[in-house]
Write a structure and sequence with these properties.
With 238 residues, the protein is of the alpha/beta class. It has a single domain, classed as TIM Barrel, CATH 3.20.20. The chain has eleven helices and eight strands. Strands 1-2-3-4-5-6-7-8 form an eight-stranded parallel β-barrel, surrounded by six helices. α5 runs parallel beside α6 and α8 packs across α9. The chain is globular, with a radius of gyration of 20 Å.
Length: 238
């Protein structure tokens, strides 16, 4: 399998504008997502300027920007502002605030106002069900299940993602496999039925290896070890 053969939509996950623009040159990148952690890592200083520059640079594909507030009133104000930056903008709303209070009422309000939402930090099927009940029929939305972090707990993320994907399909919204850790997660996301998988730059760089002949890859690895050993100048004294 090659990248071009994937049925799942690959979204680039990052906050470096230069890297995002480069990724946009690849036709198989179908959208973009960001989050506060990635923005901090990329050194973003002005959120408004950053978001507007990204929308201007990439006007033809979905882009998700996250609210920063923790109280729902402020979240709504930020969401309305972000959604106004472009018709391709999806606003990321966490499934709860930091006090564990459900965002469902806010999700309902924003969805009824026609705001395209990406509900994020979803970990359980129960949370998926609550989000879907809050979303307005016919308004585009994404439900982001953090499959990678689910796997970190020793729980099978595919089982949860399959249920989430089925539920989202019934509602007519996109399901998203988030926190991708390795290339194989993309295969898992596709076979679970997810519509989208978000992929960071370090994993995007590995995608040319997708479907590579394993014995050829083995030989390349042996040659790499030999070359690095030669550069070290080491030898084993017998």
């Amino acid at each position: 399998m090659k990248v071009e053969d994937l049925k799942i939509a690959v979204f680039a996950d990052g906050a470096d504008i230069r890297e995002m623009e480069e990724a946009a040159q690849n036709g198989w990148i179908k959208g973009f997502t960001t989050n506060p952690t990635l923005m901090r890592k990329a050194g973003v200083r002005d959120y408004t300027e950053f978001a507007k520059r990204v929308v201007e640079a990439i006007p033809d594909r979905p882009i998700s920007f996250e609210v920063f507030a923790d109280d729902f009133m402020s979240m709504k104000k930020e969401a309305l502002a972000l959604s106004g930056y472009g018709k391709n903008v999806y606003v990321k709303i966490p499934v709860t605030n930091t006090r564990g209070e459900s965002s469902a009422p806010l999700i309902s309000e924003l969805s009824k106002e026609g705001v395209r939402l990406n509900v994020t930090a979803v970990f359980s099927v129960r949370q998926v069900e609550g989000v879907l009940k809050a979303l307005e029929d016919g308004v585009p939305a994404i439900v982001s299940v953090f499959a990678g972090r689910i796997a970190d707990t020793g729980t099978d993320p595919e089982a949860i993602m399959k249920q989430a994907a089925q539920l989202c399909r019934q509602k007519g919204v996109w399901s998203l496999w988030a926190s991708c850790r390795e290339v194989f997660n993309i295969i898992q996301a596709e076979r679970s039925g997810a519509d989208i998988v978000t992929v960071t730059g370090d994993i995007l760089a590995k995608l040319p290896v997708l479907g590579k002949d394993l014995e050829e890859f083995s030989l390349e690895t042996v040659r790499m070890f030999e070359e690095d050993g030669r550069k070290l100048g080491f030898s084993v004294v017998c």
